[in-house]
Design a protein that fits this description.
heterodimer, A: 479 residues, alpha+beta, Hypothetical protein af1432, five-stranded antiparallel beta sheet, 49% helix, B: 564 residues, mainly alpha, 28 helices
Chain lengths: 479, 564
């Protein structure tokens, strides 16, 4: 179990194993160059390599060696070279580069025989790298029937030509909320995959994304909020997690939290439903009402999440904040929620994430017999619980952030035009600023942004719709 | 391997001036120097401060003259406007590799850059320090809040293509679906909502401010401990209970290791309370007991010892409570702790608890009596001696012939203190101990106790073949015992020792004289004094001196008694 006050101890152990993997691979490659297949000299290096691989797998870690940016990684852990491992590391990197291989993965059932076949498939490559090197390697592995070992192709490394680089454009690209949203989804996919397989949770990618979101809050907040209209198809996609993260960050920013605290809040919000990785999709995506046992299982997901973090992550300042968010997000301000534990403490993080989670849940999910509400009705429903399930002041702050008609909402105007809410009106809720996306005849247009309070001709809102029901991408209207 | 490349006229492409490239080179030189300085010097070292000031000045000059200082990051090199200004292939030292490995491809320093930003930057990229598993150079730079240093990442460079494809595809199909669906599924907007109802009142704003402040001061460990306790207290599911008991056990141990004794104690108390819940099944009780028993491992015991000897993080009362809760399942560890702790008051507390634990059943200590660590065995003997029961006596006497002197000494001390009459008999065995110190002590105890066999044994020892080879202190002790126990009857023996000349020797044997005097001093009666007076006229100056001293000592004792 990875519960450590110093999670770096686990890291150090993995680093040791990673370096051992490199060392044994180095010896194996070298030996294969000197001895032909079938020679007894190859047996010991194969046996040593197999031991290391099995040791890594026994710890429930990826036995994958990756080459990235001149470094070797064991899974996602960068292996910092020392004097002893310098030569071996260089050699292995060179060999991987020669074959255009970006990663070598050893599966759970790998045997000595697999390693033997693999190393000679690897060896039989021309000394000079060619563009077909990777394809040729795959072919040889296939011919030798190498099982339980996979190779990934090397990523294309762009060399930066600053003279021609439009850094300004790239800075802007970096600030694109849509791209960041997708990055966040990918980061969460990786985390959930880790969680499902019981591997150590590595949150570096997620942390980077949260930090970038915080950077965007100052001048791209509207764009970020607009993206929260994106919805998951089912429990396997992570839109809900990302939406709750964005909504929480916006609230935290409005409260004046420091960047550092916002990062902690963002991580806690992003991972608030990590416990659901232990619940089957049959329950999570069940369209109808849940049975009492299913309901109980679902209501245990905050506890599952706490367990997951403590067992697969270890305890440090960041994870302790995440644990708070994971546990508290369904407690509700009056403790009428779940899990039903004798706990009467609720942090500000927990309250914020609770509101964000409820809003996104009300406006998105039709699983488990729930009715999806348009944003304005979700806001109204939550207001009815103000002072009870939700702190009144915090809820008001939240609604001031998202508006009555959530940014990104799809509206049908009385003129039969379709529009997307792109900004709330600071003076009146009922007339947000919208972008016309379809004319009165239903034709897509790249329309103007219109302030409904002052629109000529005057328009009002006839209906509020959910864009994802129709696979409509609203993110493009915020870039 | 050159860390800083010297720029020559041939290297500058384009319209970049030579002056600009030289300036860039100087900035990099200063940066490398400052990075090395950070490794070598403490932050307040004037040499390091000088390096950083120099770097800041050069960077400022460059940015002021030529605009943003922008570097392209390659695997082992940094390029300024197409020219290599830095190269280092050593993976342990290369700044470029460190940046490149974490995905940084462009680094930009802008106008307004502060010295603290440079220091912060170099502190992260200048050398390979330990990095938390969830951090890399990018996340660490962000956390340092360096507004005048920005970077572009490899993923940023790859992003534009993805964006272009997504942004331009038409959505007419989706829009048509919307209109088709609208026919039957209109959602009219919610009734109007007056905005003033959503304005924060003064009270609400104050509450939010206070909540935000309180959040900044929260103790995260407290929160986690509360959560784990809450889950366990409310757990109905057997698997959740089992898992969280395990979590709590490890958390408790880790709290000890981290020096968080307040939290550790809290968790221990909680588990203790949990054990007493009637709703727990026997199986669950076992799980909690096992968890508690696992807390005091080798490592936690060591940390606990260091704390007990080092500071005042734990009070005596807290330590006592802690050990009482750990109880018998952790007996070995508690004995181990006793063996290591040096502070007297803490040892007292531990001994108290151990005595309490063993009171009704001293046999719980049996396994430790055969432990190879002498200090552990000695401590157990001490505990048993404090129990002072027949069972304890039986357990201890088995160690009379233990190879470790310190244990035998402890056993002898116990036998001395013991109120059990059988104990004194066992002391006789120590007269044949390998250690003269223990033999002496045993004899002294027997003498003091007026054991019936003591005189006979003392005389037997003095007549033994090996007696002459024994050290003076032991010889003296034997004759003191003889003197004290034998009294008047031993006067002839002492006379012979003091007055009778030895064959083939000129005078009285000095050792014999010393022993005789010692015995007479213990005898302390008229006959003894008379003999001493008689022996005063010895020819040997040395022996005369010894006798004179004895007489004077006697006189002083008598005077002292008279005055009292």
């Amino acid at each position: 179990m990875a519960l450590e006050m110093h999670p770096n101890r686990l890291n150090e152990e993995l680093a040791r194993l990673g370096k051992a993997l490199i060392a044994q691979l180095f010896v194996l490659f070298k030996t294969s160059f000197n001895y032909s297949e079938g020679h007894a000299a190859i047996d010991q290096p194969i046996s040593n390599l197999l031991k290391v691989v099995q040791e890594i797998l026994r710890r429930n870690q990826e036995a994958t060696l990756r080459a990235q940016g001149g470094s070797l990684l064991l899974g996602e852990l960068r292996l910092k070279p020392d004097i002893a491992s310098l030569e071996a590391g260089r050699f292995v990197l060179e060999e991987m580069k020669r074959h255009l291989v970006g990663g070598i993965s050893f599966g759970a059932g790998v045997t000595a025989d697999d390693l033997l076949r693999f190393v000679y498939a690897f060896r039989d490559q021309d000394a000079v790298a060619s563009t077909d090197a990777y394809a040729n390697l795959l072919l040889r592995m296939q011919q030798r029937m190498v099982a339980n070992i996979e190779v990934e192709v090397q990523g294309v490394e762009r060399v930066v030509d600053l003279e021609n680089l439009k850094t300004v454009k790239l800075q802007e690209t970096r600030r694109n909320p849509g791209l960041l949203y997708k990055k966040a989804l990918r980061a969460m996919d990786e985390v959930i995959d880790n969680a499902r397989t019981g591997q150590t949770l590595r949150l570096r990618g997620a942390k980077r994304v949260v930090q970038q979101m915080i950077d965007l809050l100052s001048n791209q907040q509207v764009g970020l909020l607009g993206l929260t209209a994106m919805r998951s198809r089912d429990s396997r996609t992570q839109n809900h997690a990302v939406n709750v993260c964005i909504l929480s960050l916006v609230m935290g920013s409005r409260l004046g939290m420091s960047k550092f605290h916002l990062c902690e809040l963002g991580m806690a919000a992003l991972l608030h439903d990590i416990g659901k990785a232990e619940i089957s999709p049959e329950i999570l995506d069940k369209p109808g009402e849940l049975t009492p046992i299913e309901r109980q299982t679902l209501e245990n997901h905050p506890v599952f999440g706490v367990r997951k973090i403590m067992m697969c992550k270890g305890l440090d300042a960041m994870s302790s904040r995440i644990i708070t968010g994971v546990f508290e997000h369904h407690l509700l301000a009056d403790f009428s929620g779940y899990p039903r534990c004798p706990s009467k403490r609720l942090s500000l993080f927990g309250r914020i994430i609770s509101i964000a989670d409820s809003y996104d849940g009300l406006t998105s999910s039709r699983a488990n017999g729930r009715t999806r509400l348009p944003p304005d009705q979700a806001v109204a429903a939550m207001l009815r619980e103000a002072g009870k399930a939700y702190d009144q002041g915090l809820l008001k702050l939240f609604i001031n952030c998202v508006g009555k008609y959530g940014i990104g909402s799809l509206l049908l105007l009385d003129s039969n035009e379709l529009a997307v809410v792109v900004k709330n009106n600071p003076v009146t809720w009922e007339n947000p600023r919208v972008r016309i996306i379809a004319d009165s005849h239903g034709r897509e247009v790249d329309g103007e942004a219109v302030d409904l309070a002052h629109a000529r001709p005057h328009r009002t809102i006839a209906a509020v719709l959910s864009p994802h029901l129709f696979n409509l991408d609203v993110s493009r209207y915020f870039t | 391997m050159t860390e800083v490349q010297n720029v020559t006229a041939n290297q500058h492409p384009g319209t970049t001036s030579r002056e600009e490239l030289i300036s860039a080179n100087e900035v990099i030189l200063a940066m490398v120097k400052a990075a090395k300085g950070l490794r070598m010097y403490l932050p307040n070292n004037p040499v390091l401060i000088g390096f950083l000031e120099d770097l800041h000045a050069k960077m400022g000059e460059h940015v002021g003259s030529f605009g943003d200082f922008r570097l392209a990051v390659e695997q082992f090199a940094l390029r300024y406007k197409g020219c290599d200004v830095y190269e280092n292939q050593d993976p342990r030292e290369s700044i470029a590799l460190r940046l490149h490995s974490d995905g940084i491809r462009v680094l930009t320093f802008t106008q307004g850059l502060e010295q603290r930003e440079l220091s912060g930057f170099l502190g992260i990229v200048g050398f390979a320090g330990p990095i938390h598993q969830d951090d890399d150079v990018v996340t660490q730079l962000w956390e340092r809040n360096l507004p005048h240093i920005s970077c572009l990442l490899a993923e940023d460079l790859a992003g534009d293509q993805e964006e272009d494809q997504a942004a331009t595809a038409p959505q007419q199909n989706a829009i048509s679906h919307v209109y088709a669906a609208l026919a039957g599924q209109l959602h009219p907007p919610a009734p109007p909502m007056a905005k003033h109802l959503l304005m924060l009142t003064g009270e609400e704003a104050a509450w939010l401010r206070k909540a935000k402040q309180a959040e900044g001061h929260r103790n995260h460990l407290d929160d986690v401990v509360n959560i784990v306790c809450a889950v366990l207290a409310g757990a109905r599911d057997a698997v959740i209970f089992r898992d969280f008991v395990e979590i709590m056990g490890k958390l408790t141990a880790n709290m000890f290791l981290a020096g968080e004794f307040g939290h550790a104690l809290r968790l221990v108390r909680f588990q203790h309370k949990l054990l007493n819940l009637i709703s727990l099944t026997p199986d669950q009780q076992q799980q909690v007991k096992k968890s508690l028993a696992g807390v005091l491992s080798e490592r936690t015991t060591q940390v606990l010892q260091e704390t007990l000897d080092g500071g005042d993080s734990i009070s005596h009362e807290e330590l006592k409570e802690l050990l009482q809760i750990f109880g018998l399942p952790s007996l070995r560890a508690i004995c181990e702790l006793l063996g290591r702790v040096e502070k007297l008051k803490m040892r007292k507390v531990i001994i108290e608890v151990l005595v309490e634990l063993g009171r009704n059943n001293p046999e719980v200590f049996s396994p430790f009596l055969a432990d190879p660590r002498w200090y552990l065995v000695r401590n157990v003997v001490l505990i048993l001696s404090m129990l002072d029961t027949p069972i304890a006596l039986e357990m201890i006497v088995g160690l009379i012939s233990h190879k470790e002197l310190r244990i035998r000494r402890e056993v002898l001390s116990f036998l001395e203190r013991s109120s059990d009459p059988k104990a004194k008999t066992y002391i006789l065995k120590f007269l044949r101990d390998d250690s003269s110190v223990l033999r002496i002590k045993a004899l002294q105890i027997l003498t003091r106790e007026r054991h019936p066999s003591a005189l006979k044994l003392a005389l037997s020892v003095s007549a033994g073949d090996d007696f002459k080879a024994r050290d003076m202190a032991e010889k003296k002790a034997v004759f003191e015992a003889i003197g004290e126990l034998g009294s008047q009857e031993m006067v002839p023996l002492f006379r012979e020792m003091l007055l009778k000349k030895q064959w083939f020797k000129r005078g009285i044997d000095k050792d014999a004289a010393i022993c005789a005097v010692a015995g007479l001093m213990k005898m302390n009666n008229a006959a003894a004094k008379q003999l001493l007076e008689e022996a005063r006229g010895q020819r040997s100056l040395e022996i005369r001196g010894i006798i004179e001293q004895a007489i004077l000592a006697n006189a002083a004792t008598v005077n002292g008694r008279a005055q009292a």
